[in-house]
Specification:
Length: about 425
């Protein structure tokens, strides 16, 4: 009869783990707050916005190439000293004098073989690609943040499932000990219950460790150097309508738009390379001033001289360097066009995959909920049967395992549905 007390002593000595009230205070974020924070701190998003600013500056530079280049210059020199006159064999001392010179000039390229026009098309396409890249990167960062956020939610739910498993195992252990004490159960029942309780505690400890890891990853994603708890939304988002999604979004997805814009930019580089076969014409206008008095005191007596220069240049042969550049530009354009076409096919395939995954995950939720309800009722029945001696401990442990598995599956399918929805939004580039 000392065996039941030994079991209870082992039960009391088993490590209880960390309760939620014992854990340090954590920062809590909602999904929208997590996404906003991640969009501000993620390096990929910062780089995408930097590429957009650089593309905007390149576009302004292309427009500025049609404007004249204006420059101003100025100098001051003071001359003095001695000079030897060889004809008289005398050394002359020259008086010190100061000379001031200034100039203003402007130049304008009149024709450059349409290079500026091609450069502007390339800059415009690069700007479109950068803007599409920002949109694409925004949804990629949003997807990564949602994955970290939902993973933290799912892991926290798994901790609750594991804690419920421990409570059931502990309750069953006490019942088996009581039945052993009353002589209506065998020692094997208590041993099996104790092993089941110990295994459930191991599962709980691992789930708690996984939760801390998931919360740390969420903190890193949003730029917080601490564990961050994900605040769940009480409402599961409904299944979006994807009937006409394929026909309306493939050409408008950020990935496709970015690839098309990059292909256009490289196509414009072909025009820039071909411009080297044309002559260039430019004009420059300038005026210069010189005097011996500082210009900020007086400009009387200053002499000036203006000039207008028309120039042209035509490179007739440069050792096939132009041909090399043109060939490289054509090859790069062809590769970009092939990548753009492949990106379109890739998006179409991803869209099919994500829509199927989303519909499948949504259907799994109702099945998993039914399984949890059935497993809960089965465990209740097996508990009553075991109490009256109509079921064995194996029947009860099997029902407990089935309920735990059903609860874990429910958490997983909800996580799969939320991730599938986020992945579909990342592909189409808009919120569903």
């Amino acid at each position: 009869m000392r065996w039941p007390f030994a079991v209870l002593l082992a039960l009391a000595a088993f490590p209880r783990g960390r309760l939620a009230s014992q854990q340090p205070a954590q920062k809590e974020v909602t999904l929208n707050e997590a996404v906003e924070r991640a969009l501000q701190v993620q390096p990929a998003m910062v780089q995408a916005r930097g590429d957009q600013r650089s593309a905007g500056a390149a576009m302004r530079s292309s427009l500025g190439s049609y404007l004249p280049t204006v420059s101003a210059s100025g100098s001051s020199q003071r001359i003095g000293g001695t000079r030897f006159n060889s004809s008289t064999n005398q050394t002359l001392t020259l008086p010190a004098s100061t000379a001031f010179n200034g100039g203003l000039s402007a130049s304008l390229v009149l024709f450059d073989g349409f290079s500026r026009l091609a450069d502007m098309r390339s800059s415009h396409a690069s700007q479109d690609a950068a803007e599409a890249g920002v949109v694409n990167q925004r949804f990629q960062v949003t997807l990564q943040t949602k994955q970290a956020f939902y993973n933290a939610l799912a892991t926290e739910d798994l901790v609750r499932v594991a804690a419920a498993q421990v409570r059931r195992a502990e309750q069953q252990l006490r019942i088996s000990v009581d039945k052993l004490h009353a002589g209506s159960a065998t020692r094997s029942d208590s041993l099996r219950s104790l092993v089941d309780y110990g295994n459930s505690r191991i599962v709980l400890l691992q789930a708690q460790a996984n939760l801390e890891t998931a919360q740390a990853n969420l903190g890193r994603q949003i730029g917080v150097d601490a564990l961050v708890r994900a605040v769940p939304d009480s409402v599961l988002p409904p299944l979006p309508d994807t009937t006409d999604l394929r026909q309306s979004v493939i050409a408008n997805t950020p990935q496709v738009q970015q690839a098309d814009a990059q292909a256009r930019a490289l196509g414009a580089q072909v025009g820039i390379s071909r411009a080297q076969y044309w002559p260039t014409f430019s004009v420059s206008v300038g005026n210069s001033y010189s005097g011996s008095v500082a210009p900020w005191t007086s400009t009387d007596g200053y002499s000036s001289g203006w000039r207008v220069i028309f120039s042209g240049q035509w490179n007739l042969f440069n050792g096939f360097s132009r041909e090399k550049q043109l060939t490289s530009a054509v090859v790069a354009r062809d590769e970009a066009q092939a990548r753009a076409a492949d990106t379109r096919r890739q998006v179409s395939a991803q869209l099919t995959q994500e829509i199927a995954a989303l519909a499948t995950a949504f259907e799994k939720i109702s099945i998993a909920e039914t399984n949890v309800a059935a497993a809960t009722e089965d465990l209740r029945v097996q508990n009553e049967r075991y109490r009256v001696g109509a079921a064995t401990i194996l029947d009860l442990l099997t029902s407990q395992t089935a309920l735990t598995t059903a609860e874990q599956n429910l958490v997983q399918v909800r996580f799969d549905y939320l991730i599938a929805r986020a992945q579909l939004e990342a592909v189409v580039g808009r919120t569903l």
